[in-house]
Amino acid sequence: MPDQPQTPQRQTAQSHTTQHPPVDQTAAGQEPSGFHGLIEAAGDAMRQAYAPYSGFPVGAAALTEDGRLITGCNVENASYGVGLCAECALVGQLQLTGGGKIAAFTCVNGAGEIIMPCGRCRQLLNEFAAESFQILTPEGITDLDGMLPQAFGGQDLAHHDRQRGRTTP
Ligand SMILES: O=c1ccn([C@H]2C[C@H](O)[C@@H](CO)O2)c(=O)[nH]1
Fold it and tell me: pTM of whole model > 0.80?
């Protein structure tokens, strides 16, 4: 597997060679060194969260394939159900700053602990994940299939369209 792009802190995400999940040998609770920059960036984003209703601020950070650092925080609303997860802000930021694919990702809670993205946000990440995608989870680093097994994606729509003789953009 190719090396991950470097973070602004010039650290490199750990590569993995075995099955998921998790695919690295990092013990749960330890920070794999290549993700230190992302963890820090996620913590900074978390401190900008607007979470007065849940009291559960979340920060997310990603490194794009071309080396950009993208972050997001959750933004809640008095109409609870329309609150935005940190990952929603992150993918908006990704697109706004030039698009591309996510090579590495992590997110943290208010205590700075690594958390898993909720189900909806795993789908958001799947849309923009690079083939080499790695996510730092509470149990270590895993890949796309470890995060969202048998993910539904554009390939399913393309398959459906082919059966109907249509083309998907
Ligand atoms: O992956 C997740 C899971 C939860 N939250 C937010 C939504 C809500 O504001 C708060 C409590 O669920 O945490 C995120 O931002 N990302």
Answer: yes
